[in-house]
């Protein structure tokens, strides 16, 4: 076995994408094993690989880890992306959890029925620009550092960049009123490991398309 983490998921973003981002940010090479059919998922379930019968699942350090937050916590701790003490870790958790809430909205947009899409889009824009982004803009202003927590690159920075880019895919001018988030985006995107992950041909996944939804439904339902 190569010592690389092995990621089991479908060939798309979903709940694995933040894990891919975190590994890439840490400069860790990983392998991917894509679920193509319902049988692929059933095989993992039957051989006892999935503790709660669901993916994402990551094979790392001799473990078969499930639950995306647990996986991310482990990777962040292992690769020193989780702050220098308990208080910094608490801040990182708060910032990350809020971003996960916004991410959920962004991720589920493609799955909305046609008659709900417009309202769902309006909800995304409203929550991003009125609830979430003003907080991170203020954090950067008050903190006065290049990073969200302490003065050290952490998983909070990785999660924020991922979410900003997803929001811009949804609405290209969504950061218009947030100059500090714009400069944060440019700065973090230039960190060598992140820059590499943002290049074409990396393991970063494109946005989910409508045409992909039926295939996913066949695997998971």
TrEMBL record:
Entry keywords, A to Z: Transferase
GO biological process terms, semicolon-separated: glutathione metabolic process; xenobiotic metabolic process
Single GO term (MF): glutathione transferase activity
InterPro entries, A to Z: Glutathione-S-Trfase_C-like, Glutathione-S-Trfase_C_sf, Glutathione_S-Trfase, Glutathione_S-Trfase_N, GST_alpha, GST_C, GST_superfamily, Thioredoxin-like_sf
Catalytic activity, EC: 2.5.1.18
SUPFAM superfamilies, alphabetized: GST C-terminal domain-like (SSF47616), Thioredoxin-like (SSF52833)
Segments forming domain GST C-terminal: 85-208
Keyword Cell membrane: no
One matching Pfam family: GST_N
Keyword rRNA-binding: no
Signal peptide positions on this chain: none
Domain GST N-terminal: 3-83
Stated family: Belongs to the GST superfamily. Alpha family.
Protein known as: glutathione transferase
């Amino acid at each position: 076995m190569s010592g690389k983490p092995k990621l089991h998921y479908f060939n798309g973003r979903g709940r694995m994408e933040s894990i891919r981002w975190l590994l890439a940010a840490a400069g860790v090479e990983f392998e991917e094993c894509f679920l193509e059919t319902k049988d692929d998922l059933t095989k993992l379930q039957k051989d006892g690989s999935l503790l709660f019968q669901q993916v994402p699942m990551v094979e790392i350090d001799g473990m078969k880890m499930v639950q995306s937050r647990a996986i991310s916590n482990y990777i962040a701790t292992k690769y020193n992306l989780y702050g220098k003490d308990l208080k910094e870790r608490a801040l990182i958790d708060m910032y990350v959890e809020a971003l996960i809430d916004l991410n959920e909205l962004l991720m589920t947009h493609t799955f909305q029925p046609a008659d709900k899409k417009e309202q769902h889009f309006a909800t995304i824009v409203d929550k991003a620009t009125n609830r979430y982004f003003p907080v991170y803009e203020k954090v950067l202003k008050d903190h006065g550092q290049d990073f969200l927590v302490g003065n050290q690159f952490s998983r909070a920075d990785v999660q924020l960049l991922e979410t900003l880019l997803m929001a811009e895919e949804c609405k290209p001018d969504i950061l218009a009123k947030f100059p500090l988030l714009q400069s944060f985006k440019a700065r973090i995107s230039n960190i060598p490991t992140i820059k590499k992950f943002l290049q074409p041909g990396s393991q970063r996944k494109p946005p989910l398309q409508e045409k992909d939804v039926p295939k996913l439904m066949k695997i998971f339902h």
